[in-house]
Specification:
The protein is an alpha/beta fold. It has eight helices and ten strands. The strands form two sheets. An eight-stranded mixed sheet has the order 1-2-4-3-5-6-9-10, with helices on both faces.
Length: 289
Amino acid sequence: MVARAAFHVDCPDGWRLHGELLTPENTRAVAVVGHAMFVDRRTLDRPRGEGLVSHLAARGIAVVWPDLRGHGKSGPRPEDGGDWTYDQLVADVPALLDFARAQFPGLPLHAVGHSLFGHVTLAHLARHPETALDGLVMLACNTANPEWRARPLRWLEKGAYVALSGTLVRLFGRVPIRRLKLGSDDEPRGYIDDFVRTWLIADWRARDGFSYYAALPSVRTPILAMVGAGDRLFSPPVDVQGLMRRVPRAEVEIVGRRSGLPVDPGHMALVLDPRMRPVWERAASFMLR
């Protein structure tokens, strides 16, 4: 039996994040589980009751399941005038962790991030390695870093996608992903400006000059990074391996046919495809070990 309840968290700058709290009868751990860009939290439980977060709850893990800033119910959204930067998403992480810790004091606390939430949580840990977090599961997480230039064709391929995002922002004031029918949530100018900037400098760097990439060796949290063997553009396995080599307690697993799955999953399939239940179970086992 899993109880579901709405919650909200107020960030230090006043932005309110909304989400859902899943509490199993025999809770053994708690995880803040966050989504990718261009979508909202619903991607993490499709169909409802049978997706990733429901699988974790069935294993005894309480789930704090938010819509990230400007996504889903955590508006204002870009089409309503909402704007934010990458660094503000990073700064929202401790508010969510503090909420989870207050709801379940004394239990092991983890974070699970698909794409965007995975690397903003890692960015927070890079800036604040003293953060009390028992583990981080990163699903298909990749971000700009100096190693991209070692693979110039791949860097330019990513650049075409980044440049398109920048062009759309100049034309519409945001990336109109809903109008293009490529996702559920638009992204704003501030965030896309950071997206373009970090690609151009090939460094994962905050607006104040702090390099999240350079600080990765200071991260103390155990990390499980899983990436689909079929993820060709957004999080290719070689990119994820290169990024996570800098994190002392990180392990990378490439999941697909060679690991026993029926397919080589792409970026979104890792959370949307019900055939990924062995991946979700691996995440649960990592948090309950």
